[in-house]
Structures are given as C-alpha cells and as structure tokens.
Write a structure and sequence with these properties.
nine-stranded mixed β-sheet, binds P-hydroxybenzoic acid, about 20% strand, alpha/beta, six-stranded mixed β-sheet, single chain, Rossmann fold
C-alpha cells in the first residue's frame, strides 16, 4: 500500500462509500494501483570496509535473479534503494530506520554482518517489514528472535562451523585443534558450531584465540598458534580480513605444518587476492566451485557474462533471495499486504538454487547440504558433501516457537 495516498486510506477506513472516494479522487487508486506500483526493495549491505566485496556479490546475485524473472516480482516492477551499512553496528539502527520509516520500503534485503543484522531485526520485528537476510548467520534470528516476516537465504554461522567439526572428527587423525576468530556474534557462533561437531566426534579444542572485528593484526596470535602445535587451525574470518589472514598464515610458515581449515567464508570471493597463499586450505559451505548441475552451470555462465566476475556463495544467497521473494510475491498476486499468501509461499518454497535444492526450516533458515571444499588455484573446489540436509543448532531450533 506504499503509494496509496494517505487521505484516501483514511477516507476508505472512515467513510468507505464509493461516491465519497470518487469525490476525493480516490476511485481509481485502490488495490490495483497498490499492485501496479513498483515494489520497493531496500538493500542494506556493506559497500565499504572489509565486507564490501560480499555486499557487491549479494547485490549482483539479487539483480541476476530479478533479471531472470523479467525484472518483475509478482507482476510488479522493482525499485531498489541502497544503503551502505559499512558493517558498523553503531550505525545500524539509524540505517534501518531510514529504510523502513523514511523510504517506506516494502522489503529489506540485508545484511552481511551479524551485529548489524541484530539491530535490523529489532526494527523489522516491530514494524513487520518483510526482511530477507542474504548472509548474516546471526543465530538468534532463527532462534529466540525468529519472526514470521524474517527469512534467511544463507546459513546460520553454527551450520558452516558444525559441518567442518564433523568433517575433522571423521578423519580420526585430527585430535587437537586451535581456533582463531573475530570476537563478535558470528565468530563466536562459528566456533561454537565447530566445537559442537568436533567434540561430539571425540576431538579437543586446545586453544581459543580471539581478536576484535575488523582487526587484522594477526602476528602475535600466529606465534601462539605455532607454539600450540595443534593438529589443525580452525579460523573464522571473511572478506578482505580473510585474505590478509591467509597471507599472514602462509608467510609465518604455518600453512605446510599446521593445516588450516574453516567455514567457507575464509576463502570465498577472495582467492585472487591471496596470490596462492590459500592453496590446499579446506573449508565447508553451502556452495562451492564445480557443482556440475544444469542449474549451477547456467547460473555461473549468466553471472560471469553479466558481471565479468565469478560467482561465490554470497552471490548465490543474493540470487536465491530474488527467487524466494518472487515466489512469495507471485502467491500474493503482487500485493505485499497479503501476508498469509506471501509468507506461506516463502515458507513452503523449494528453492531450485545453484547450490542444490533447499527448503526453509520452520524457523526460516535453510536446511541444506554443506560441502567440503579445497582451494585449488582460484577455486574452492567441491570435494564431497560434509553433512547432508543440515538443519540448525538444536538449541536455536528449540528456542523458536514458529512451526510448533
Ligand atoms: C556474519 O557476521 O554473520 C558473517 C559475516 C561474514 C561472513 C559470514 C558471516 O562471510
């Protein structure tokens, strides 16, 4: 209803006679205009800072998904309003309020950083604005803070960490692991996931190292890693910070002596910037290079042609967000206010994704395969499926009342 004049809305509620509405010039601007006006999508993503390449990939993916639907969702054209959130939690409340209250967007697409996402959901849970999260794996969003109007198309941070924990434990020969991560929600959850998967299989965490986001002063901690002599190092970093970590780890002479593993964020979208320093690093994620399906091959070709870039897991989540929204808008006949139809279709959708088909959990988080990948040249080459159809952290599933 964004473009339906306020006077008409008021008149409709109070007077409701066709004659009165016509006198006010409202007769031809009812539901049909609401359905014909452009649907406004607020993109709140990082375009500067360490996560900037992730924001760009998500936007590109979304635009490609939209283009493949003829540029329309539920028959309505789309207007995109962009905000650079800078991955800065301190600016997040003001940024999301600008989109929701000033720009009056119909949908919010965002974001990457869990701390920013936490501030966003505080607002969208209150306003009821449809929010699609195309990255931030912030656990409570699909736990105690789950909400009918909030959907995630990416992962929970726990999921990507857990898959690597299971994989390491399965190998048997890896008994002790040191962890290193940025200390904020995402790092803590990615380490918890790893720990849950690894210790369940008999592994031990020997050292937990932390540094504040987005610091990249790794030297002192790399010295500690060298001294700890664990069987492997598990690291959570992403974007430009991850590229720096991979180079520093290699330069410290650790890559060949203590194998480095992590959730896929450690190596996604940044391999060209590492100049070979990540060769052999193993990670787990919902996507990877070399998934040989017609859907993925077509996606990769279209993405490379459109943006002159190779897609990654971030681009896939952006792309799937456009399709998820398209499915919802179609079921709602283009009327975003028909929430029952909109949310119902999004909840029940099977997304035919480049990553493979996936469905939403009752808490609105993807239930999906997690791949084991290995860096070969500039590729995160898929080696196997580490965990099939992985749902979320059981403690988060239990804390979300939806679907129960
Ligand atoms: C997060 O903050 O949840 C986050 C950020 C970057 C990633 C993954 C997760 O690559």
């Amino acid at each position: 209803m964004t473009d339906y004049p306020k006077t008409c809305r008021l008149a409709r509620r109070t007077l409701a006679s066709t004659v009165t509405l016509a006198l006010l010039g409202c007769a031809f601007v009812g539901t049909s205009q609401a359905q014909q006006a452009k649907i406004k999508v607020g993109m709140m993503l990082p375009y500067t800072g360490t996560f900037a390449p992730l924001g760009v990939a998500i936007e590109n993916g979304f635009r490609l998904g939209l283009q493949e639907q003829g540029g329309k969702l539920g028959g309505r054209e789309v207007e995109i309003v962009k905000v650079d959130d800078e991955s800065d939690p301190a600016k997040a409340t003001e940024n999301i309020n600008r989109l929701v209250s000033r720009d009056k967007v119909d949908v919010v697409l965002g974001t990457v950083h869990s701390g920013v996402a936490a501030a966003m959901v505080r607002v969208t849970r209150e306003s009821g604005t449809l929010q699609i999260i195309p990255n931030a794996g912030f656990a409570p969003v699909a736990g105690p803070l789950c909400s009918p109007n909030i959907f995630r198309t990416s992962f929970s941070n726990w999921q990507s960490g857990y898959a690597m924990g299971v994989e390491m434990a399965r190998r048997g020969k890896v008994k002790n692991v040191a962890t290193i991560a940025w200390r904020y929600a995402a790092g803590e959850e990615a380490v918890k996931g790893f720990k849950d998967g690894f210790t369940k299989g008999g592994g031990q965490i020997t050292r937990e190292l932390w540094l504040p986001f987005p610091t990249v002063e790794f030297q002192a901690l790399l010295t500690e890693i060298g001294a700890a002599k664990a069987d492997a190092t598990y690291a959570f970093f992403a974007g430009a910070g991850a590229a720096k970590f991979l180079k520093d780890y290699d330069q410290a002479g650790l890559r060949k002596t203590i194998p480095l593993v992590g959730p896929g964020f450690l190596t996604d979208g940044i391999l060209e910037a590492t100049g070979g320093a990540a060769e052999g690093v193993e990670t787990t994620l919902h996507y990877g290079d070399g998934i040989d399906t017609p859907k993925n091959n077509a996606f990769r070709l279209a993405y490379a042609k459109t943006f002159k870039l190779q897609p990654d897991g971030y681009a896939v989540a952006g792309y799937d967000s456009a399709w998820l929204l398209g499915i919802g808008m179609k079921a709602a006949g283009g009327d975003i206010t028909r929430r029952k139809e909109l949310f119902g279709a999004m909840e029940g959708a099977t997304i035919d994704s480049p990553r493979g088909k996936w469905k939403m959990s009752p808490a609105h988080n993807p239930i999906q395969d997690h791949y084991l990948r290995k860096v070969v040249g500039n590729e995160n080459r898929v080696v196997s499926v580490a965990v099939k159809a992985l749902d979320d952290d059981p403690s988060m599933i239990a804390a979300c009342p939806m679907g129960k």
